[in-house]
């Protein structure tokens, strides 16, 4: 294939990465005690979002599927039963949404029930891209509110909301592209807040709702679960059951495109896992995907036990959740930056340099194709690994004594 020209996409990526540098500088100044008022943080956060809110999605067309799924449900049809190009849905086709749906000819919806409920409710008000974006930005308000409450409870300055509110990743992927990860993040933030306030039932319901938008947040369950108290896990299970009930008429099709998507993204043959692929490239021996998945499960289990035993009960919902979420995302190593959005609220409390790099530099994954240009993921994930290693060396390296 011929070399790609420096087109609008690449210009946008350069601009986004420059924003990332400015963002890291702002976070560094904030952490060094620079005076930043909450009204300024909020005003600029709103201004940044307004710049992209009413523009067409640039990097992704997923939002068109959201609107389509809402319209399908509005017609009384189970969204898991038909692909968008199915003649049974021909009456729902329009010029604004249907032609822009990706994988329309072979993929049923991939989004779980709580996401579907959101799509349905939003399209009852406005079956448009702008309407969906507005709803997702409004849900960011829930995330911001939860962060502020948690900052107050932790005795940290409210200005730390800047870490989330000014994140270029969040701005572009929520207000710009309109990804449903904003809703998942809001439920995760509310779940952590409820758990810190000892409202285990509400925490479980919120975590269950987050999992019903995308399955990723299930990894933080050990961090928010209070040992020997079964209220929270029972609430998670109850929410999962309640969420799936309205869609069970689809049978196994209720899983949607997820099984096929796993194969499409290289999660079945192992090529989609950056760590497994890197080890295979370095050793010349590819790691069997089942071996990598089992090893990842073992590591996550050890981390969960360590978090439960070593981290203080009050800090565990935030610190433990960040550790498990970050480990899970590095193991999954997605090729789409919006998968990292839900990590950003935790960075308001634990501004980890490796994770700040991972989230601020996520736009690298858009440069050409991270699956066919693997060194982009090497730069992103490898850079985070180098920063983490440097931090460990700095922490455990012996210090010089004052003696001569």
UniProtKB/TrEMBL annotation:
The chain crosses the membrane at residues 12-31, 38-58, 163-196, 202-225, 232-250, 287-306, 318-336, 342-367, 379-397. GO terms for molecular function: hexosyltransferase activity. The keyword Transmembrane applies. It holds the Pfam family MptA_B_family. Coiled coil: none annotated. The keyword DNA-binding does not apply. One of its GO terms (cellular component) is plasma membrane. Keywords: Membrane, Transmembrane, Transmembrane helix. This is DUF2029 domain-containing protein.
């Amino acid at each position: 294939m011929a070399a790609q020209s420096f087109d609008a996409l690449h210009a946008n990526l350069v601009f986004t990465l420059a924003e990332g540098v400015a963002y890291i500088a702002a976070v560094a100044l904030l952490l060094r005690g620079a005076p930043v008022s909450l009204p300024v943080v909020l005003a600029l956060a709103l201004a940044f979002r307004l710049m992209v809110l009413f523009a067409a999605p640039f990097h992704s067309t997923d939002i068109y599927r959201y609107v389509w799924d809402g319209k399908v449900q509005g017609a009384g049809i189970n969204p898991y039963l038909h692909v968008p190009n199915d003649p049974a849905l021909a009456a729902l086709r329009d010029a604004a949404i249907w032609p822009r749906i990706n994988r329309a000819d072979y993929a049923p919806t991939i989004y779980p029930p709580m996401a579907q409920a959101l799509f349905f409710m939003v399209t009852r008000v406005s079956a448009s891209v702008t309407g969906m974006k507005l709803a997702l930005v409004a849900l960011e308000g829930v995330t911001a509110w939860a962060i502020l409450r948690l900052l107050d409870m932790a005795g940290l300055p409210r200005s730390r909301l800047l870490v989330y509110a000014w994140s270029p990743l969040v701005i572009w992927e929520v207000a710009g592209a309109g990804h449903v990860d904003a809703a998942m993040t809001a439920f995760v933030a509310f779940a952590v807040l409820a758990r810190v306030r000892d409202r285990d039932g509400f925490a479980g319901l919120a975590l269950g709702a987050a999992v019903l938008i995308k399955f990723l947040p299930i990894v933080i369950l050990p961090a928010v679960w209070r040992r020997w108290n079964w209220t929270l896990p029972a609430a998670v299970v109850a929410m999962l059951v309640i969420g799936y009930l309205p869609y069970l008429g689809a049978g196994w099709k209720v899983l949607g495109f997820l099984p096929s998507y796993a194969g499409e993204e290289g999660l079945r043959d192992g090529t989609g896992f950056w760590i497994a692929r890197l080890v295979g490239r370095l050793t010349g021996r590819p790691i069997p995907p089942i071996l990598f998945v089992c090893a990842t499960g073992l590591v996550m289990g050890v981390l969960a036990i360590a978090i439960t035993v070593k981290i203080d009960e009050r800090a565990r919902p935030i610190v433990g959740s960040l550790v498990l979420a970050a480990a899970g995302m590095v193991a999954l190593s997605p090729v789409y930056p919006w998968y990292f959005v839900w990590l950003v609220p935790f960075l308001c409390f634990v501004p980890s340099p490796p994770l700040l790099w991972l989230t601020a530099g996520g736009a690298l994954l858009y440069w050409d194709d991270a699956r066919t240009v693997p060194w982009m993921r090497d730069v992103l994930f490898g850079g985070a690994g180098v920063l983490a290693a440097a931090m460990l060396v700095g922490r455990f390296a012996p210090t010089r004594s004052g003696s001569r």
